[in-house]
Structures are given as structure tokens and as C-alpha cells.
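subagent[fold] <- orchestrator: predict structure for attached chain, return C-alpha cells only, no commentary.
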Amino acid sequence: MGNEKLKIGELAKMTGITKRTIDYYTNLGLLKAERSTSNYRFYTSEAIERIHEIEAMKAQGMCLQDIKKSLDDECNPKENIQEICLHMQTLQSEVSTLIESMNHQEQSTKETIKNKVLPESVTLIQSLLRLIT
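subagent[fold] -> orchestrator:
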């Protein structure tokens, strides 16, 4: 089934989804179709899996707008990585500021602050320190 192009009716039959629903998903940008010179829509075999993903997410109670965002995020991991890097830079700055502030505190104050930090936070802070040093 590699590069085979499917007409909307064939895709509907293979997935159990109506042509009208497939058309709606296409118009929303959830599915991508290629148009022929005679204006027929053709879908790749990947559309079958995509429809199954959409239907599974709908079954979990997700709205189509959230499904589109989720699928778009999966398709563009480069943007996700950039977003994570930006967030890590912000955290790095905050941790550096916190460390600098801690260095100027008295030992008793440092111990008080350390005792108030949750174990999960300690692990996160240690991980961040490894990343930035």
C-alpha cells in the first residue's frame, strides 16, 4: 500500500468514516489531500492511520481543535525543541539568579531554604545544574 493514492470514497470505505467527515477533516486541516487536474481529492495511505489517530483522540473526549494542535505539534518537532530550549534558557537564568542569591545568604538561612525544598524539586534542580555547568 506504499505510495498508492486513494480517492475519498476508497478512504471512507477503508476507515469506516463517511466521505462527509473526511471532507470536513480535510477542510479543517486535519487531513491533507492532493488535487488532481480534474479536481479529485487523493489521499495517501498515511491518511488511514491519521484518521484512526483522530478517531482515538475524539474517543478520549478531545475536541477537533485540540486534536489539530496535537497533530501539528507531532508533525513539527523542530518547533517543540526550540520551545523546550527557550524554556530551559529561562530556567537556567532563574537557577543562576537563585544560586547567586543563595551565595549571599547566611549559612542558617541557606539550611532553612534547603529544608523547605521538596525532594522532587531537588532532583530537578540537580538536573538543571548539570545541564548548565
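orchestrator: received. Logging for downstream: The mean pLDDT is 82. The first strand starts at residue 5 and ends at 7.
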